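Record type: monomer structure entry
Structure origin: computed from sequence
Chain ID: A
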Amino acid sequence: MTVTVRYTCPHCNAMVSLERPPDLADRSVTKIRQPGWEYANPDDPDRESADGIEFVCGEDGPVTDLEGEPVAGCGRPFYLNFVRYEQGVELEPEPPTYGGPRFDFNG
């Protein structure tokens, strides 16, 4: 089972639609890549196992305005970032290091 999810290009407000499984782990849509994250293309069958999806507005399929009318798109990349976990702890979008020591003795 899949659901149609719409994402807004942060550059031009065009909408792109994508069929996704219903158990989404979306965190944010950004204009820039998150450092150290690996992104899949929208048509990659293994995209859900990546750290996010890289879109190119208007080039990865049809885009619409908010009312559903077709528009050209701006041709600029934007990024859907998934929630990521490491050893059961949610990672921040721009972690300073991966796998290094942790000094938060409260968690």
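Annotation 1: Confidence is low (pLDDT under 50) at residues 95-100.
Annotation 2: The chain is about 0% helix and 35% strand.
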